[in-house]
């Protein structure tokens, strides 16, 4: 069997909590109990927000865009940090290593017949031992079950 190795694809998108609209954590781990609106920064859900589109205010930096917007500088900064971390721990400079094909008969010649026969005997001995062991266990189980059956009758 042969598998091609590929570079891992990294998720470069930063995480943002939908409760407090802060970056670097998700709602499950949020310490804020109040829902913060991503549109105006007040304590309500964005669906309940009555603020006009020209009065949008980011809760994080007070800019005139949604706290969850893709062009939000905080979100972009978090994505840059994430990319720097990925680049710090990733290496594209390592050389590609080629391996021999497993089906190449020159690289992997056939085994000798003597070795194959020895392996066959080993496998047969192991199977015989296993069958004898299982047969003994099965006989005990059948015998105990039969005794219990006769006692109940």
Task: Report on the architecture of this protein.
By secondary structure, the chain is mainly alpha-helical. It has a domain at about 25-90. The chain is about 35% helix and about 0% strand. It contains two helices and no strands. It has helices spanning about 75-90, 115-150. The longest helix is centred in the C-terminal third of the chain and has 40 residues, at about 115-150. The model has no long low-confidence stretch (mean pLDDT about 80).
Secondary structure: elements and pairs:
Layout: H1 73-89, H2 113-152
Question: Main attributes?
Answer:
0% strand; 2 helices; mainly alpha; 153 residues; 37% helix; single chain
Give the number of DSSP strands.
0
The CA-CA distance between the termini, in Å, is 57 Å
Q: What is the string of helix and strand elements?
A: HH
Give the overall pLDDT as a whole number: 81
> How many helix segments?
2
**Largest sheet geometry:** none
Overall spatial form: elongated
- How much β-strand is present in the residues? under 5%
């Amino acid at each position: 069997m042969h598998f091609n190795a590929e570079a891992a694809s990294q998720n470069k998108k930063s995480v943002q909590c939908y409760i407090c609209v802060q970056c670097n954590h998700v709602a499950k781990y949020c310490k804020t109990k109040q829902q913060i609106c991503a549109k105006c920064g007040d304590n309500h859900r964005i669906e309940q927000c009555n603020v006009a589109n020209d009065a949008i205010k980011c809760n994080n930096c007070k800019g005139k865009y949604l706290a969850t917007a893709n062009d939000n500088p905080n979100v972009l900064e978090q994505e840059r940090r994430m990319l720097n971390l990925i680049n710090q721990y990733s290496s594209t400079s390592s050389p590609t290593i080629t391996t021999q094909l497993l089906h190449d008969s020159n690289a992997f010649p056939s085994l000798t017949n003597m070795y194959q026969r020895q392996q066959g005997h080993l496998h047969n001995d192991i199977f015989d031992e296993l069958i004898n062991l299982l047969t003994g266990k099965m006989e005990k189980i059948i015998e105990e079950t039969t005794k219990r059956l006769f006692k109940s009758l």
